[in-house]
Amino acid sequence: MNFILKNITTGVKENLSYSELMTRLNKNRKDFFNTYRIETVSKKSIIEKLLFILFVGVSSLAMGVIILETITQIF
Fold it and tell me: What pTM was computed for the model?
């Protein structure tokens, strides 16, 4: 997992690993959080993205079939 360290005053963003972040944090712990904001970056694999898209697609199709079946039973 990577971390994005954003300087509040300048807006400069740095991409850091966990060990680099801990080194930076230990150097100036006193005013670190007054100067910086930390964002985590987790990268999803392609398989996770494809499974999510497949799940959403099948769910949408199933809802459409249920709604269509309900409409045809009413009329």
Answer: 0.51
